Amino acid sequence: MFKFDFEIDDPDSSLGKEPISPQKQTLNGQVSTPELMPFAEILIDKLLDELPPLISYSPLHIPLSSTRQSITLVRRDLFDARFQLISEGAGDAAETTLDNSNAAVSSAESESNKIALHFLDAPSDLVPGVYEGGLKTWECSLDLVDYLDSSKDTVNDEGFRGKAMLELGCGTGVPTLYILREIFSSIAPRTAVNETSSPTRIHLQDYNSSVLQLVTLPNILLTWYTSPSSDTYRASMNDPEIAPILDLSTPGELPITAELKSAFLTSIRALDLSLRFFSGSWNTFKPDETIGIDGYNLLLTSETIYRTESLGPLLDLMQTACSRDRHIHLDELISSQLSIDPQSSGVPLVKPSAHSCLVAAKVLYFGVGGGISDFLKSVEERKGRVETVLERNVGVGRKVMSVHWP
Question: What is the model's pTM?
């Protein structure tokens, strides 16, 4: 196991201790051909309704290459998500299914919760077509944050405003949390001066709907709550027990009230921010239906090229989502003045230009078969071009790459 110099849960240099079979192994030990989950949207109101009355969180300290040196985000604790599922009876459903191979799953939702409960104890274990690792925070998502942050000094407070962004295989959503942190902290609500500007649209996709429910949405809510955008809510409640000021240096708990949910929705509407959540396979994701013919201005994905079998659907989706004639590229979001420092493993190596697709990945995923080499070959076969914008050479090599489509 390789360990890096930042604090994430059970950091591991690989995405599996043994090669992953393309067959699906069910929780009761039977093997069958996996049936990929279809694309579906989960409304934000539904995700908010599924939150428990109290969630616990821990800080996530991310080192940066910039003079800021580090930032701190907050994530929901996985043990808290596990407790929620058990309290809702998912443990009973899982036990019944494991003990009785003939037991039928009552609904897709109970099946999803059963799978989530099983993998909350082993978030690094991947089973294609069943669970794709979304409960764990992977190293490369932090690299993506570092790259985005490296441009912060030359971006005004409207850097991400009015853009359409998609994070594929979002899991805990760390790169999106960073973007939202900037939006919640810096962008003022719409005024008469800017009321004609485009809305900010942030879409998140993960294979497992339970991941969106248990970690993605809670992490977004925590990011909002720890920003100035939630000040009005705390002031209106005037009760430190119900609406406490959180200490980001230590773990803690946040009460989830109806008033908090309402304040969150009111706040994102005031910021003209649209958040949408999608589950299911990349094969069935249709950007034309989620964002329209103009596509996404910025697509982010990290640790998603670990399996060569999934490269085709991933690249199909990336091309469809990003290869648009009327694109506003990432060079409108960040400056091209980043210096080249070949002596450093944590500094961007080239100036970013016309970026729209950012992919963060390890050079090789041991025991799984995927890696950057296969990814580059697949992109080149599609007449695309890949540019390395950040590279780390300590331990298992990692890169952030910008993909350009013809």
Answer: 0.82
